[in-house]
Amino acid sequence: MLADFHTLTEESRIWIYASEMTLITDHQSHILNYISEHLKGWNAHKLPLTAGVTILENHFIVVALDEGEIGASGCSIDTLQNKIQELEKELSVSLLNRLNVFCRIDDEIQCVPSFKLHGIAKANTLFYDLTIQKKSDLHSYLKPISEGWCAHLV
């Protein structure tokens, strides 16, 4: 069941998909409509899931699931991943590359391959921690590299 992303509880589980390029308005509208259509019928073991989607900072697609009554199953997560893969092909954009690190450098979001991070960023460079799992963590997903999973890469 599709819900307004902003009304879902702070404890909602989230998945973040990051675009290497800035998503233009037309792409954002298409992505939101495409995923919203999927979420309308999203289910786990034939039970409807309550979820919403938003796009943050023109790069980050965030799907939130209220697991208060029904949690995601492996199969339901797979169907979401399949929709993201379809969007990648349709829009010729990478959304699933977990080897990228998204940093805020010179007040812009830059996508940096993890193996190049040491040459571009420092321990105090801000990065977007896309490994967070709760909607409440979105308030602090921009943090210094020294406080994140990628600290050992700089």
Give short descriptive properties of this protein:
4-stranded antiparallel β-sheet; 3-stranded antiparallel β-sheet
Quick gist of this model?
The chain has 154 residues and is an alpha+beta fold.
- Please mark out the parts with pLDDT under 50 across 5 or more consecutive residues, or reply none: none
Total number of beta strands: 9
Q: Indicate the percent of residues in helices.
A: 10-25%
Strand order of the largest sheet: 7-6-8-9
Overall shape: it is globular
Q: Structural class of the helices, strands and pairings?
A: alpha+beta
Q: What is the helix tally?
A: 3
Distance between the termini: 42 Å
The major beta sheet can be summarized as: 4 strands, antiparallel
**H and E order:** EHEEEEHEEHEE
Average the pLDDT over all residues and give the rounded result.
Answer: 96
Percent strand: 25-35%
Give the radius of gyration: 16 Å
Q: Could you describe the 3D structure shown?
A:
With 154 residues, the chain is α+β, with helices and mostly antiparallel strands. It is built from 3 helices and 9 strands; from the N terminus they run E-H-E-E-E-E-H-E-E-H-E-E. It has helices at residues 25-40, 74-91, 117-120, and strands at 13-18, 43-44, 47-48, 50-56, 60-66, 100-105, 108-113, 126-128, 142-144. Strand 4 and strand 5 form a beta hairpin. Helix 1 runs antiparallel to helix 2. The radius of gyration is 16 Å and the shape is globular.
Question: In terms of topology, how is this protein built?
Answer:
Layout: E1 13-18, H1 25-40, E2 43-44, E3 47-48, E4 50-56, E5 60-66, H2 74-91, E6 100-105, E7 108-113, H3 117-120, E8 126-128, E9 142-144
Helix pairs in contact: 1-2
